[in-house]
Amino acid sequence: MKSRLLGGLAALLLAVVGAILLFVYVQGAAARAQEGLEPVNVLVVTERVPLGTKISDLAGKVKTEALPKSAVPEGALVTLDGQDGKVTSAGLEPGEQLLAARLVDPRDLVPGTVPVPEGMEEVTFLLAPERILGGRVDAGDTVTVYSSFDSGDQPSTGLLFHDVLVTAVQKAATETKNSTGSSSTEKTVEMPNGSAFITVARSDADAAKLVFGAEFGTLWLAKQTDTTAKTDPPVTTFGGLY
Predict the structure, then answer these.
(1) Domain with CATH 3.90.1210.10 in the chain
(2) Beta-ladder partners of 159
(3) What would the pLDDT profile of 12-28 be if each residue is shown by its tens digit?
(4) Rounded CA gap, 108 and 104, in Å?
């Protein structure tokens, strides 16, 4: 009788302890689940974004959205601040979170080239160093293109296009020498001595004008900056030069 009573008390005690442990576990699980559901603001893609899209063009294709913390991967971006000059390293689909790893420097995407914007095509020209800033034009640069024609008595120079994207540059390596003419770790850049193939992205209609300018005249590139003023100057002729 006494042993049965002790056994019953032990079973009751075990049941109480088990119930307490179960309650503590459930409370902890609920807290963990609640922590995972804590909302976090991230940038989410709202429409299809092609590979190589610039940050300036990406702003209208993403929006801020609150998602559960547990569903936000490491590197998810909250803002585009600090990403100037970068492009997307892959195509992005609607609903996808924007990750920092998907934004890269254009020159890191494919060595020596940058992606062609959607709807454009590439065209290549062979230009002398003086027409490409002494060879200082690189893939990813934005340039203004001028054309000159020597048409008899009335030679002329005019602006063809602003905001022309250079997608590739093929040129020989620049020769370097020290002041004594021998090789050294301390080098000075020599005058450029070779032409370069410059590839740009443009619409088919604009590409036709560029080809015409290269075929029947000469092309000159001017490198743009973020503060370049873009005007519409008249065609310059000898009579209007001075």
Answers:
(1) 39-104
(2) 146
(3) 666 666 667 666 666 66
(4) 7
The 3-state DSSP class for residue 185 equals: coil
Q: Which one of 3.40.50.720, 3.90.1210.10, 1.10.275.10, 3.30.750.24 gives the CATH number of domain 39-104?
A: 3.90.1210.10
Asked if 171 and 199 count as a contact pair (C-beta separation under 8 A), the reply is: no
Helices (H) and strands (E) in the chain, counts: 5, 12
* Long-range contacts of residues 80-84, Cβ cutoff 8 Å, at least 24 apart: 80/43, 80/55, 83/55, 84/55
- In angstroms, what is the C-alpha Rg of the chain? 32
Place of tokens 């048409």: 151
Distances (CA, A) of 123 to 116, 137, 201: 11, 16, 7
Using one digit for the tens of pLDDT, what is the confidence trace for 142-154? 999 999 998 777 8
Distance of alpha carbon 134 from the chain centroid: 26
Residues 6+ apart with CB under 8 A from 70: 36, 37
Closest CA to 220 of 236, 204, 241, 238: 236
